[in-house]
Amino acid sequence: MPGTARIGVDVGGTFTDLVLHDPQRDAVHTGKLLTTPDDPSRAIIEGTQRILREAGLTPADLHSIVHGTTLVTNTVIERTGAKVGLLTTAGFRDSIEIGREIRYDLYDLFLEAPPTLVPRHLRREIPGRLDADGVELLALDEIAVAREVTDLVEGERIEALAIGFLHSYRDPRHERRAGEIVRALYPRLALTLSAEVAPEIREYERSSTACANAYVQPRMRRYLDKLEADLAGIGFEGRLYVMLSGGGIAAVREAKEFPIRLIESGPAAGAMAAAFIAKLAGLDRVVSYDMGGTTAKMCLVEDGAPDHKFDFEAGRLRRFVKGSGLPLKVSVVDMIEIGAGGGSIARIEPGSGLMKVGPRSAGAMPGPVCYGRGGTEPCVTDADLLLGRLDAAYFLGGEMALDPDRVRRAFAEGVAETLKLSPVDAALGVQRIVDETMAAATRMHLAEKGRDPRDYTLIAFGGAGPVHAWNLARLLKIRRILVPLGAGVASALGFLVAPPATDMVRSHVGRLGRLDWSVVNGLFAEMAEAGRALLAEAGADPTTIILRPSADMRHVGQGFEISVPLPGISLSDADIPATRESFFDSYRTRFGRVVEDQPIEALSWRLACAAPGQDIRIRLGGTAAPASGEPTPRGARPVTFEGHGALPCSVYDRYALRPGMRFAGPALVEERESTCVIGPATQVSVDGDLNLVLEAA
């Protein structure tokens, strides 16, 4: 009998989180261990073996493992990818370096341009030309293709090749023919065609995406091959799946061919978990707040789904400055990511003498000072320990003891001494800085979407999220916080509840009243067939797949477009009025007004393909029958709050709480993977799904 259990694995910068769900036994188990940066698969194997032991299962009982990784992101940021060559249309060798010819900072005389992934000497021009309608103006020079790729492989020793020809989104025949020549000559060479990875208009972004995909492809293939081999070595015979940046589950083959689609793989899982939790709680306006050991991620979740976007900038030179990174045409969950995690290092900035926190992180090795693994610079986790938020003897359920004396010395001999503060005041400053940084970024993210944070509920998770959620909500004036059971590993839960899903796109430009609908319908039919095939490979039942069409549209003459839902995938002139109204609704939501007398054009046609996800609840062992009244604390300790000083806090065992219980802050609720800090003037209740619901006065 095949196994039924599934494991979700989230490899973060500091910790690797695991959630095991066994529907046959209606059991959920969680696990958390330090990430192994030198070989991330080692922590996956160790964590899988341990969680199986705890659940009383064997690898043969596993149906599948769903995995997310930051490997693609780290490769791009750290510039540790493959040596890549590029074949492009004659005359367009420098397109990826010229970009949009826009300075992301007009007033910086020493502005550093975003570095390209392919240096100029590895970019080769190939004669051959199609026009914007796909008509061949000049035949592809096949001899030049063979000559240039031979020189790149044998002379320059490239490890991967990208091919990006002009107008290939309209007709990819030249790219495909060049790809056939390359594969015939060098069948083992990693190859990316821009028309396959990003079949969209705008050659700069399309070529940049193709180069980035080629850049990370060899490393990602090696990683996934090794992971599959290591899992097979412990007896795993099920399927390995991966999380895409858009929040869908895909087969390993797609990850190996298009690894750039995993650029936001790990963070997307947290957003999917928040969307799932929001649905269960009946919340339609939520800010997802995921704070781990290295970063904090915020995402808007409305009507049960996180916001999406179809472009992304990777490896920005300046974290919040648009245009300072590599543009990618990939589907991603729309979120902000801040270098504010438990391992973010506090330091005194030379020159100003001011304390800064992050984005540099101590990671898993050496980690914060309190881990006792060689860290010497105090981090956010060290500050939380010093302020009383964490129990030194109960970190990771007591599996990992923390050293408060070492932390106190590190503060006293470091930032506290420089600033002439006590260690506790310096730790309070660390907390103040990191929380204000997160609050400012969240305000900006919501303001750009025309949203008011006071209208939302904060769902807090990640190892450090519940520790900082109360103060972050206070700064944002959010009155309700929801903290799920197993908050410290909620991102790993996101892998298990996320649906098999993928986003397809094709570009075909035309005015709304002049479109050839047979061409558009043909594109949708092609995308639907490809999407169903990918989801079937990812384990979806083809009969349950839902297709959601949309188009990127704008007024003629505008520079950029907006996403517009469409009435179906088989369109005709009869659908024009409904499509116009859908465009105006989307335009009004974004800009607050519409211009009805200007013609409308579509640039790209999109099809979101998704199958239903699984309904999984993290429950307590044994009964979780409703209870009333206030739970009995298992102890108390003082916690320092900004503006209040040290307050005595009751400490509650998370696993002893039952639905219907109520208590008031200040208090602490401790579970194995995280601690929820509850400030004064806050009422707490436990709902039917064992979520903590914090209501501020």
TrEMBL record:
Protein name per its UniProtKB record: Hydantoinase/oxoprolinase family protein
InterPro entries per the UniProt record, alphabetical: ACX-like_C, ATPase_NBD, Hydant_A_N, Hydantoinase_A, Oxoprolinase-like
Domain Hydantoinase/oxoprolinase N-terminal: 6-184
Domain Hydantoinase A/oxoprolinase, first and last residues per copy: 206-501
Regions that span the bilayer: none
Species annotation: Paeniroseomonas aquatica
Superkingdom as given in the UniProt entry: Bacteria
Residue ranges occupied by any Acetophenone carboxylase-like C-terminal domain in the UniProt entry: 520-688
Segment forming the signal sequence: none
Pfam family for this entry, one: Hydantoinase_A
